[in-house]
Specification:
The protein is mainly α. It is built from 11 helices and 2 strands, in the order E-E-H-H-H-H-H-H-H-H-H-H-H. The N and C termini lie far apart (53 Å).
């Protein structure tokens, strides 16, 4: 469906960019579950039918706002090697997703827009520059993508636990007092000690990149 440059509905001048930006803000503030064409129209002070000049339906709107999140990812400069490019894309993608937590669960289930396709192109291009075997490059692409998504979901889940901190602390204390899981208790106590550890996201990403870089040597 084409995008008219603007449509005036009452006192509001609508554009595609305004609609997508406002829908993203609503999702940020209230969650993706609360986003609807009617709610968005009310927020923009326009009629619901005016929105359909720009987006076919709610599914198309969600695709657009997820792609807007992808547009926040920092484009890699041309002077980085393949590992530096992958790291920048991965870290910037994670940061963008965590700024918009609602996007994380639906990221992979939503048809990509131009910004998402650009990210995929950049990541595949970096892996191509590594001169990996095609099958290993493909596995690497999925391993990196899954790492980003899995880590983002974990951060969101931990954040939800933090929101219930009093209940969580009580249950952790009960677990510590339980002698049945000594290794679990040791693990919890390590985290509660405040010891400095490497950046978990980067640490695991480096393991993936090391494995890709050394795969042919290790398997020969």
């Amino acid at each position: 469906m084409g995008r008219p440059k603007k449509v005036r509905d009452g006192d509001a001048v609508l554009t595609y960019e305004l609609i997508v930006t406002r829908a993203t803000q609503l999702a940020d503030n209230d969650g993706i579950e609360q986003l609807s064409m009617r709610r968005l129209a009310a927020d923009l002070d326009c009629g619901v039918m005016s929105l359909y000049h720009y987006v076919a339906d709610k599914e198309a709107l969600i695709e657009a706002i997820v792609d807007q999140v992808a547009g926040e990812v920092m484009p890699p400069p041309g002077d980085l090697d393949w590992r530096g490019t992958v790291k920048l894309i991965a870290e910037s993608t994670l940061e963008a997703q965590l700024r918009h937590p609602w996007a994380v669960p639906i990221w992979s289930a939503t048809w990509p827009g131009p910004n998402r396709f650009a990210l995929v192109e950049q990541l595949l291009g970096a892996l191509a520059d590594a001169d990996l075997r095609p099958d290993i490059a493909d596995l690497g692409f999925h391993a990196i993508s899954n790492h980003i998504q899995g880590f983002a979901q974990q951060k969101i889940s931990f954040g939800q636990l933090d929101a219930k901190s009093a209940i969580t602390a009580e249950r952790v204390q009960a677990l510590v007092a339980d002698a049945d899981f000594p290794r679990v208790v040791e693990h919890l106590e390590f985290h509660r000690s405040g010891q400095v550890t490497p950046d978990e996201f980067v640490f695991t990403l480096e393991l993936i990149l090391d494995a890709l870089e050394n795969y042919d040597t290790a398997s020969s």
